[in-house]
Amino acid sequence: MSIINYAAKVINFKVVYYGPGMAGKTANLQFVHRCLPDDNRGNMISLATGDDRTLFFDFLPVSATSVRGFTTKFQLYTVPGQSRYNMTRKLVLRGVDGVVFVADSQWDRLKENVDSLRNLNDNLREYRLDLTTVPYVVQYNKRDLPNVAPIDYLEYTLNRGARRVPAFEAVAVTGQGVFDTLNTVSRMVLLREFGQVQEGAS
Amino acid sequence: MRWLHALGVVVAYVVVAAVLLWLDVGDFGAAPPWTVIVAPFFYAVLSLVLVPRATLQRRLRWVGGACLTHVVLGLAAAIAFWALVEVTLLSALAYAFARLGPVPFLTLLATALALVPFRGRVFSPRPAPRVERARQAGVATPTPPAETPFAREARRREGAAEAAAETTAPPPPMPDPSVAAPEVPGDDAVVRVRFERVSGQLPAAAFTLPLDRVAESLREPHWITVPRRVVLAQLPEGAVQVDWAIVASQFPSLAFAVTDVEFRRRYPGLKLTLPLDDVLRQLPRGAIPPSGIPSQIAGLEAFPAPFQPLSVPREAPSESAPAPSLPPSVAFAAPPVAAPVLVFAPEPPMVAPPPPPPPPSPVPRIPVAAPAAAAPRREVSPEVVSRDALARLAACLAGVGTFDSFSGVVDNVPLVAFVSPHVLREPVTAAAACIAGLLGAAAGEQVTVRTARAAIIVTAAPTPVVIAARRPGAPVALLELRGARAAALVGRAGEGVALPPRALSMVAVEPRVAGLAGTLGAFGILEPAVLTDATGAARIYVFREPGREAERLGELALAVWEGLGRARDADLGALVSVVFRQGRRRILVRSLGGRGTALLAAAGPVARPGRAWREADRAAAALESR
Known about the structure:
The complex is a heterodimer.
Chain A: E1 3-5, E2 10-18, H1 25-35, E3 45-48, E4 54-67, E5 70-78, H2 86-93, E6 98-104, H3 110-125, E7 136-141, H4 151-158, E8 167-169, H5 178-194
Parallel strand pairs in A: 2-5, 2-6, 6-7, 7-8
Antiparallel strand pairs in A: 1-2, 3-4, 4-5
Chain B: H1 2-22, H2 34-50, H3 56-84, H4 89-99, H5 102-115, H6 119-123, H7 149-158, H8 160-168, E1 190-194, H9 211-214, E2 223-227, H10 228-234, E3 240-243, H11 244-247, H12 260-266, E4 271-274, H13 276-281, E5 365-366, H14 387-395, E6 404-410, E7 413-419, H15 425-436, E8 446-451, E9 454-459, E10 465-470, H16 476-490, E11 505-507, H17 511-516, E12 527-532, E13 538-544, H18 550-565, E14 575-582, E15 585-591, E16 597-605, H19 609-624
Parallel strand pairs in B: 7-10, 13-16
Antiparallel strand pairs in B: 1-2, 3-4, 6-7, 8-9, 8-14, 9-10, 11-12, 12-13, 14-15, 15-16
């Protein structure tokens, strides 16, 4: 649910990077943070354990284009992927406008991907949302590793619902596919908010 | 092809039978009545030739199918007769089954010919589904072994020279999975998995031979076969697990150290997780249907890409920088997730003015607030085993549950830990570090700590391996086996350190306590002793084998209590028992209720650990009631 400040002409969107633990959600945000001009980015806040596992969430506010005279800002969040932190994931999903599902492409992580996607859908339902209505994209991360599953099979397990969403191959630590993913989900969010009319987009 | 072949046989049979009737050349008299009765026996004998390796159940099923085919062929011939000549249907049936002499024998022959192509299906663990032919490359063909290990054992006894030759024989070559092999006719209904890729999930103790030699005795040596429909049903889940019952029949019964019933009792719910890369390679092209729906991107072109990255990214933050000032005591803190909700409100102030311009500093990492800042500080160091080694150790736990891995040094003890997500890691590693020091010469190679809410298994190794799961419900015996296997990968443990001597003195054993020795039958014949420390505050009831020093057991029990039992851990719950394993010998220590320190220690060779644990539980209850 976007938040609009009519006085300041600012509209805020919330995009959540979801996925199993160690899939590369934080790496996505870190690369975005490193690559955006200073004017477009805020402070990135990470709450991690000693071994760099996300404990609560990562948060990165970024500003983007103007649409219909409104400055669009995106609040990028990640969730902790570990199964024990489901309450935190639910909380982070509240008011979400778009979701990036970051999947780990390695063979031995496929089951966790499926479980995490199921968990995402379950958590969205608590807010009366679901993956058929929320703008979301899938990112198949870690494609540089040798033991990765073919895209066909990943698509079969993670992107075969009634609605097929855009999917991207990525290597988040090097930035491959990171901005393709972010731009696509952002445009889907904008499309949902503003519809097909694009007057004012700049 | 099989069905075409069978259809061809049926058509040929009907035509020949009809010609015999039409030309009257088959009027050699009526066949004897036993030709009808003898058919099942004929097929039973025939099954010994056509399906020699099938189990009795599958053989009977094959004979039943043959009898049914026999009847169908006879009916087909009868219908043909009825259509060709003007006879009643009953007469036509009589001709087909008895009156036209050669036809019953022709039926026996045609049935056998029609069923020959289906021999392969008898070897499948389950009736295979009718699926399209796989033309997928990559199905490696197993090479049949020259002999089974059992035959090899017999031959080894016959001559030392041959035995020497046997031991120096090179292991069978591992097939290159990337090399395509021709499809084996009749095998398209199963998926083959190299046994070595799943053997790590099997309990080695349940087999009489090492698993690498069990591989040679499988029904298809070195391969496990799984019905393809079982695999296909699980493909959307991202993992394929098969129940033990599906593959059990492929193991020779002589390979098991325990009966089938005992095996299922010991390892309930045992599943094998198949390597998906191998599995997918063997599936037909249509098994993973491509989504016919295009991605929903219509309308996106109306909006320009909102974010344009810098052409050159900034330097990577803080990875190479000095480590953040992370308090060692909070490195593994896992506070309850619900508690800090108010601090990190789920709805951030999105309309608030943007934060001040960010400094060009790297991403700040906020250390976790320590919920137990007063907890004793524990030394934490970087990983003590490589990531690859950690992955290999984790593979030993495949199929047992979900675990978070950890490697590091806790209280100067290097550890590798696999902790269930339901159990907090820090108290587990702290308890494991405390108890690991007792392993070795004094107490054995493995220890299982049971608390009210967790089971912690520590196995001696240069870097001890710790597995922790939630109690009750944890498969402790299975975890002990897997822990031992994982520790074997790490290396051989040292001798350990001797326990510090303590001033323990023996006191008189009351008759009631002496009588309890007889109730601990699972430990064998035991002698009771009661020890107290110098202050008299601690009392240890020791039950040990005749001839063993009671003081050694008493020292160990006190060391356990001082390490684990005295400070009740809020996360793990009260200490229930500690069981050390020294080969077949078990040393069980548990605390007794009441004032002061009261402990029970029992030691002896144990064949049934569960019974021993229950008997010690009852003995403890009896002592507590004193």
